[in-house]
Queue: 4 jobs
Job 1
Amino acid sequence: MQFETWLVFLVACVGLSISPGPNGLLALTHGAMHGSRKASFTILGGAVGFVAVIALSMFGIGALIKSSVLWLTVLKWAGGLYLVWLGIQVWRSPAITIIVDRSALEVQGWSLFRQGLLSAVTNPKVLLFFSAFLSQFIDPQRSLAQQFFVIAATFAATEIITEYVLASAAHRIRPWLARIGRRFNRSCGGAFIAIGAALPLRG
């Protein structure tokens, strides 16, 4: 990939990362509930998931999914149902407190990593987006493996930085979040539920 092309791709990645999405919302929520250090597991899981989706898109699976109405429908419903389930879990979470309670202390990093990973890989819009988006930057005359490394590393880095900023900011405003209690959890949970319910219904 030429340097000028990479710069355009980097700008596009930054724009995509700062736009609202399930993984950014998840990082914000986990940053407020568990702190930025533990939310790093969520962020890393999401980054790994995005790299996997990029790999699938670049090596041809995206084209297969787009050509199959059945598989597209399955992915839409699977991703939507997972986000609805995740939203219900966030909705039912206890109110955020200034002093971290035992449940927040005992949460396992692997559990947060898994949530971030699944939030990324079960979103069919991500696969379809990358399938169309990445084709603009791939040079068929160059090594696909090398281009994959550059593209995946660039996107993962921008996602990790953006989501860590969100998680850190959420943790700093924790006293304010504690004052509004469960309303914050219900707002975030409701957003997840709305996104999950909308995914299968969009064309």
Job 2
Amino acid sequence: MDAILIVDMQAGMLEGAPKHDLAGVVARINALTAMVRGNGGKALWIRHYGRPGDGFEARSPGWEFLPELVRAPEDIEVGKTLNDAYAGTGLAALLRELNPSRVLVCGWATDFCVDSTVRSTVSHGFPAVVAADAHTLSDRPHLAAPAVIRHHNWLWSGLIADPPVRVLPAADLLAEEARTP
């Protein structure tokens, strides 16, 4: 069975500049979480707990998950306070208990929380799979969002890991699952 980590897809992300292809990212996350659940896997929602006054302060409107995301009662929530979803949380222990065959990673922000979580997934010895088109961010001062996404997809596919990080579009992950008996 698989586990999927959905990183920081909270209303606070809507502040500031628009996020690249947000509606498409949400749709792909919904499709991937449905696939994982349908095969007996677990969806783990990573929720950032911000500082007082920031867009992710606990129990503020920005702290809530985007309402367009489809969540299920059996899904698991993990709270975090740093970029890395593993740092100071029970995520690694939870994944060891679940013992997934692979850990899919998606969410916001590509270059901060998603990147830290992908690298930490590898460092904790889990087989990481990044949904190449299911993570997002806004343009950065020095680089447009699509370029940041392409760069990180390339970078993750080149990480030294055993097994290597797989980076595939959501449609390929869904088709791959459909072919599995």
Job 3
Amino acid sequence: MSGLLGFSRLVDSINTRIGQWMSWLILAAVIVSTVNAIIRKLFDVSSNAWLELQWVLFGVVFLLCSPWTLLSNEHIRIDIVNSMLPKRGRDWIDVFGHVFFLLPLTIVMLITSVPFALRSYGINEQSQNAGGLPQWPAKFLVPIAFFLLFFQGLSELIKRIAIMRGDLADTASGGGHHASAEAEAARLLAAAGLEPAPETKTH
């Protein structure tokens, strides 16, 4: 399990770094949108390339930050039934969902999107709008995103199994390596007398 957890930490580190970098593109999209709107209003000039750049930037953030979102447990969850189940039941639902839904979906998307992107690149696909951007770079975002999401799904599965075995700490935010760091920080603060010691969980 230690080897798998090491792999999980590596995946988490890579997707966290990518997510943090790509999140800056939200600011870039806002700037592009603002400048484009100002120029259009003041000079009655517009550009399809700048308009499409806004969409591409949004697509980059949405797709390439999705593994980071999963890692941070910030994805949308329907917890009406899940919240009424015991901890063990919720853990098994997470394992089942990753094995039979998330991972198979990422594999299907990889199998279908790679030829889709390569075909677009092969014909140097361009925008149908005058003066628009090439289309193939945006289409390559799909296989890249699902490749990263596949490995993040594996990482989450490893962590959930480790949590069920008692090898890894768990928190309300989803547990895992960050939870272990949080637990250690809380222990050090408690030892320094700055806050109460966290309750010990058994698995």
Job 4
Amino acid sequence: MELRKAFKSDANSIMNIIKQAQDYFKEQEIDQWQDNYPNYETVCNDIANNYGYVLLKDNIIVGTAAVSFDGEKTYEHIYDGEWISDGEYVVIHRIAIDSKYKGKGLASLILENVEKICLGKNVHSIKIDTHRENLAMQKLLKKNGFKYCGIIYLEDGSGRIAFEKIF
């Protein structure tokens, strides 16, 4: 398997995986990734900004994530806790796995690959947030060594629980 930067030609495949995740959240009554977010424009912006990544299995896109070394405005203030570190970090957003491949450890594989990318840039912190009701993501993060840090608020005012991993 290979994690590589996403190309514009990958946008439809990425959106297909994101749509699966949106449908799953809706079925589970989790108010995350609803109201047309993330959408095709979000995915194209990720690709244009070099944030978009895809996980390939036999040249088929089976996972996606947005990975940014540019900081995150909404992470400047954290409530009911604190970040583990205050140095350089990478942010992971919009991680999703094709529903046909769920439960095979692929999201963990994406996280491991992002760590390798970080080490290549001498960055030793990953920060990520998720919806309070997204228990699957919380379990994934804890399993992969992320520590709960507190609450951050998105630009629309909705709260998310924040995690960080130092390596």
